[in-house]
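Minimal example, chain plus IPE.
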Amino acid sequence: MGIPATIDLNNLPQHVAIIMDGNGRWAKEKGKLRVFGHQNGVLAVRDTVEGAVELGIPYLTLYAFSTENWNRPKHEVNALMELLVSTITKETKTLMENGVRLNTIGDLNSLPKSCDRQLREAMEKTKDNKRCTLTLALSYSSRWEITEAVKSIAASVKAGDLNPEEINENLFADRLNTAGLPDPELMIRTSGELRISNFLLWQLAYTELFFTPKLWPDFRRTDLFDAVLDYQKRERRFGMTSEQVK
Ligand code: IPE
Ligand code: IPE
Ligand code: MG
């Protein structure tokens, strides 16, 4: 198999972000509990990460748990947290083999202590890997992130370290959890839902969006390749005319 010859390796999105959705429906279709869907979603994560590395995409961001997901039944939240810890422990080896650096965005302090510890350990172990930065959005929501950025800027102004005149888009972006990451050029959402669900609202300003009805546990690297091919057919105009960007 491998990479389709039709993919232009000189026109790859540098950053792909994915809303991994549909685990619960996938399990329900099979007459199983929702947690079974989450467990099978791990396989999709591994294959997608390997696909991104194979293609040469340097930044991959996965929405794994939103601030709003805390409102789910307690047993589902607990199962997701346990799955997170066991997956990180098991997958660190694969990350090392593939040259993947683990990174996170979101409110890590709100996660159970064991999750927080495993994550920090995995980030430390993988910190020198150069092929791909895998960012997991955990206990993340964009409005939370933007609010935190505003608080941080206000604190700098109050302390006399920042003049309000100096506030611009770059300074603001540097106060977000995603500081240092380029904006995503392609955002994929699985499961057929056509919404953003509080994900990277600032960063997605000019991102190409790709929606697929596939449920997350069925997603594989070939689906990532399909999304990249679709992305490469688009003309990104950034407000200009077609003639200008040609
Ligand atoms: C995505 O699948 C995983 C998380 C949000 C944690 P869902 O659990 O949202 O599955 P559906 O959307 O209910 O099918
Ligand atoms: C978005 O999926 C969050 C993650 C994939 C982690 P949800 O299933 O929580 O989103 P809604 O509720 O359908 O918008
Ligand atoms: Mg969902």
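The chain is about 45% helix and 15% strand. The first strand starts at residue 15 and ends at 19.
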